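Let's practice the habit of predicting before peeking. Look at the sequence and jot down your guess about where helices and strands might fall. Then scroll down.
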Amino acid sequence: MAVFTQLTESDVTNLLREFSLGSFVSLTPIASGIENTNYFLTTECGKWVLTVFERLKPEELPFYLELCEHLAKKGCRVARPQKTRTGKLFTYIHGKPVSIADCIPGQEITTVTESQARSMGRLLAQMHLAVRDFPLFQKNLRGLDWWIQTAPQVRPFLNKTQCALLDEELTHQTALVKTDAFKALTVGACHCDLFKNNALSEGIGTDNAHVSGVFDFYFAGCSPTLFDLAVTMNDWCIDPQTGRFIPHLAQCFIQEYNAVNPLGENEKALWRDCLRAAALRFWLSRLFDFYLPRKAALLKPHDPTHFERVLIDRKTCALPWPKNRSDHL
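Done guessing? Here is the structure:
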């Protein structure tokens, strides 16, 4: 959530005339993230998050914003977009689309606890069930097609070993999507970027710490829900220094997910493949953002070598999987 578009008090005061959110009080830029411009906005009626969309086109926005509204209506803890006085989910500022959403209560999550892992596992499963009747479709814009398109752009920055790793994984994933097993996976509208910096927690420091909500759905797309699970666990359940799973966190997460949205034998067979795919997706995007960055105030690209390590590890590591009741007897 870097700052590409600088807004003034006058800009936002004029914008608020289109909403029923009260008068302007304050505006604070948000530094984290890399795609859109985001601000904390405080009005007389409360605290909100204002998002200026830097890349998404107006015709693409209904999928993302209506997905958030759909999930909120289903009882999932997500940032819900506010409608304008005329019932629209977004409007324009400086010629760019802009939306205003709820500001979720809670604190940033730095070190994941078992209670937070269980909480996020449950919430992610609830979200995957909730979208089964979501009517809109948007392909995952950071899916296989984008990986294939992006690889040649970052290849000049890689050494021979890294190029070999990239080529091998692209070949593997390209073949995988053509299989009947992959085509049989459940597909739904997924967040596809649900790292812990896209969630907040309440009760931090207690045994009751839990995820209070998730936000930033602007990489969302329709993909196998197993891939979305892999993306999330590849961030929430790892040692950040090595990228390896922390076994007890990973087990807590997937056990709770499975209790709400059971995983089957086909998912088990493709679990490693999806974890590898999730690692590849973020290795490529971080390589692109690191070596070919856009100009933005407060923008800090992430280290791409982290997901290179994750990808290498997921090819051979022990995998977390839900335990059956009989396993505990």
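How did you do? The chain is about 40% helix and 15% strand.
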